[in-house]
Design brief:
Helix content: 10-25%
CATH class: Alpha Beta
Number of domains: 1
CATH architecture: 3-Layer(aba) Sandwich
Structural class: alpha/beta
Radius of gyration: 16 Å
CATH topology: Rossmann fold
CATH superfamily: Vaccinia Virus protein VP39
Strand content: 15-25%
Largest sheet: 7 strands, mixed
Shape: globular
Number of strands: 7
Order of helices and strands: HEHEHEEHEHEE
Distance between the termini: 34 Å
Amino acid sequence: MTPVLSLDGPSRFYGKLLVASGPVLVLGAGDGLVAAALASRGHEVVAVEGSPSLRALVLERRGTLPHPESLVVVSDDPRTLDLQRTFSLVIAPHQAMGLARSPDELHAFLSALARHLEAEGTFAFDTLNEPRSGEVHRPRGVPHLRERTDAIHPLAPLRLSAVTLDEALDSVGLVARERFSDFNETPFSSDAELQVVVGGPA
């Protein structure tokens, strides 16, 4: 079993949220790095990825696991997903919420997250932070989102302020309990490039 501290930043961060042997849902698995890392620790992980090219990478990582059956790969859109089951941990790594291109799509994504979260469960995700008023950020490609060409333009990923994100979470019955600027758990600041959020049902 790979020690959490030996993993990359995102895998280490999300790995610290694992509870006992509860199941994990990964919305927008990207290349599968985080999903495979969690599955390698003996957890049942369901990785949802709509992009065929990225899903192929997840399956490739799955094949390297000691117990490949622990990682289930699902071809679906996280915005409309309904697996008819709940999970103790639901995460959206790799800035997967960038799939949402409008307030309605953001609501749909978060609704799917809430729908699959146990009553005492934990959710976590990382997303780009909206720059402070007056700041100009050069548009840039985002890893994994650039592969989802049907979902989002690679040079205009979704950015959310903390206030907007909290309002969106509240609308689906969720609340953020911790917010960081990076995977090293640096306290969040409004000029941070990233928001890394952990929370649960309100």
